[in-house]
Structures are given as structure tokens and as C-alpha cells.
Amino acid sequence: MECGLLFSAGKDSSLSALLLEEFYDVTLVTAHFGFTDDWKHARDAAEALGFPFVDIELDGAVADEATERMYEDGFPRAGIQQVHETALETVAAEYDVIADGTRRDDRVPTISRAVAQSLEDRHDVDYVAPLSGFGRGAIDRLVETHLTVESGPSETIQKGDYETELRERIRNRWGEKAVTEVFPEHEQTRVTGRT
Amino acid sequence: MECGLLFSAGKDSSLSALLLEEFYDVTLVTAHFGFTDDWKHARDAAEALGFPFVDIELDGAVADEATERMYEDGFPRAGIQQVHETALETVAAEYDVIADGTRRDDRVPTISRAVAQSLEDRHDVDYVAPLSGFGRGAIDRLVETHLTVESGPSETIQKGDYETELRERIRNRWGEKAVTEVFPEHEQTRVTGRT
What we know:
homodimer; alpha/beta; two-stranded antiparallel sheet
């Protein structure tokens, strides 16, 4: 079965791909808005991992709505959740199985059982989240043995998904200060291949 | 890393083993009470799947407490949950990683994020539930392509885990009628090998 896995070049979506590759024909799918070329980092990581890659361009209106929400909230969570759900809906139109790298300990994005079943019923797909039964420690140990990664502050490690573009969008509309208010500095990782 | 996966010879724990085998040294572990020889069905299924197998005998007092609870409730859920958690605690003493076949759509047993983290902290293990991000449809489709199964009413398909023994215990103490009251008739499956 054809599985479209939402892919950011981060360790969660990369490890998810390894968990699913024996069971599905996995294509790594990166959703972006076409504002920047950062999605190409995801394409490079997908190639290094040995998976087929597709990028999908979401409507810019989704980015506007999400960034306005983030700016009002002062937190990225609700906006990220909105974009993630839109990306899943878009991928669901094209594959038998859709997947993402959400983990047991994630605060955002999270796909509840109700949202998962709604996606499955409306699009006649299976939604699978292979890491949702794995905690942070288990994931870190599997990443260490199976993937090579670069890590650093979120400004220097540009991943391939929409987060980089959302930061850019906020910077353009409300200035640099808004970016650091909405997105607290955190360590990012980008996957560069398999061990 | 050494992973002890709770195994009943059913399709969920069998599929979990296949999902984990590329990542851990998986041993299938069947918990029972030593009342009957049904655990040997699990040993046979483990051999057919090609995994190392261990059986562990839980204290009979756990079965007494669980069956009293089930008989009082008129439902098996709380008692099953109690036995499952006891089995996980026991396995946690012996392995780096403990696992089970709980699914996204399961009502029982379910291991909440809080219980999972408590297990991990107290025993210094990772707890992983590889099917907790898979719904019923996805699991059925993967079972169909990867496993051979026998199915039938729960009386004729004897699986290898503690459920058969708990039914037997209830039958001995309160009679056949109590068994059918506590355990509604349902379709059981026993895995016989890989496709």
C-alpha cells in the first residue's frame, strides 16, 4: 500500500519512515507554502535516507490564518496544529495510508483518536502514527543507533517543513521581535542520513 | 537492546513483534498463572513466528484479586487491566525495553501516558506500544498481508495468555454462567505463523 508520510527532515518523521518501510511503500511528503526554498532541505534528507520524495504546496491563506493565530496567542501551538491538520487532509487525498511523526510525549501537533477516525472515515485512508507509542527516551536511543543528525539552535538548523516558513512570515509581518516571542529558542535537529 | 514483549499469540502482539524486530532483540514473553497449560499455545506461536520465547508465572493472588473484581463488576475490563499492569511490572525487571500490543482503538488494556512514564521512571526501562498509533483497519490490513491466523469463538480458540486462565478460574469458583456473564462471546484469533 502507498503511504504518504509527512516529513520535516527532523528525527521524528525520519524514524517513523524507518519503522514503516517494511510494511508500506513509503513516500516522504513535505508540505510548504512556497515562500522560501527551505523545503529543499527535506528533499535532500529524503534522498540521503533513500526514500521517494514529494513536496506539496499549501494555500498561502492557511499560513496567514495560522500566523495570525500564533501572533495573537503568543504561542505557536494552535497555529502549528492547524497547519499540520491541513497538511494531513491534503495528503489524504493522494495515498492509501497517511502517516506522521507525532510522539507519545508531543504537546503539538497531536492527533486525537477522534480526529484520526474522522480523517480515516472521510478520506477512506488509514492514518498511522508509528511513534505515538514511543516516549522521548526510546526515540532518542533509536535515533542514535539508526540516524545521523545535525543539531543546533532553531535559527541555524533550517528544517524542511512549514515551521521555517511560518517564522519567516511572522518576521515579515510583525518583525524579528515577534518571532522570538512566538517561538522560544529551542534545539533543532536535522537528519543527514542513516548510520 | 533487549526487548520483552508481552505476547498472547493474538494478532496484536504478533504484529507488534514484527514492527519491533528490526530495532530491538525481541523476546516474546507470556504471563500466566500456572493453572493450565494454555501458555504452551503461545510458545508454539512464538516458535512459528521465529522469536525467542519466555513464560513468566504470576502470583495466583493476582488472579484471585482480578477475578473477584471481574465477578463483582460483571465485566472483565478492570480485572484484565490489573493483570496486564502486573505483567508489565514483572517484565520490566528483566529487560531494557518492555512492550505490548495495545492499539489506538483498544478499550482495555490501555496504558496511559502517565502509567507509561511511571513504569519507565521506576524501572529505568523504555515502554513502547508500537500499535498505539494504528487503528483497527490499518492493523487488519497489515495482519492480512503478514500473518496467518485461525479465528473462531473464544471458547474454541485458546490463546496463550492469562485470559483463558482467568475464564477457567471464574468457572471453577462461580460456575459456567459467571463466565458467560463476565466475558461476552467474541471472536478470537490465534496466530499460526507468517505469510
